[in-house]
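User: Here's a chain of 133 residues. Predict its fold as C-alpha cells.
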Amino acid sequence: MKRRIFILSALVALGACGQSPRCATDDAQGLVQALKPREQFRSMLTMAVERTQTAGMVAARDDSKSREKLAHAVTDAVERHEAEWERNLIASWQTLSAAELKQVCAALKERDQNAFMRFAQRVGPAVKTQNDP
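Assistant: Prediction complete.
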C-alpha cells in the first residue's frame, strides 16, 4: 500500500509540474529535488488521511473546522518529517546505478511515464523499508 502511494505521489509530482521537471544533477539528490519531495510528501499524507474513517466522518458532518484541523495536522506532519522524508527518498533512489539515475532524469525531462515507472517500481520497496520505522 505504501509503495503504491509513493508511486502515485511521484506521478502526481511529475504531472503537477507545468514544464518538464529537470534533475539539478544526474544523481539521487538532484532527482529527488526535481520530484519536489515536500509537495510529494504532502500529497501522500493527504491521500492517506482522506482514506481514513475519521476523514469520512468529518466529510459526512461537513464541519469546516474539522477539515481545517485535518489540513493543519497534515501541514504539521510535513513540517516535522519532511527532512527525513527527503533523506529517505535520496537513500532509496541511490539504490540505482549512476547510469540508471541518468535514465530516470532523462525520463523526467521527456515526461516518459513508462520509463519513470519502471524505476519507481524498483525504488518503491526501498522507500517503504526506509520509512516503515
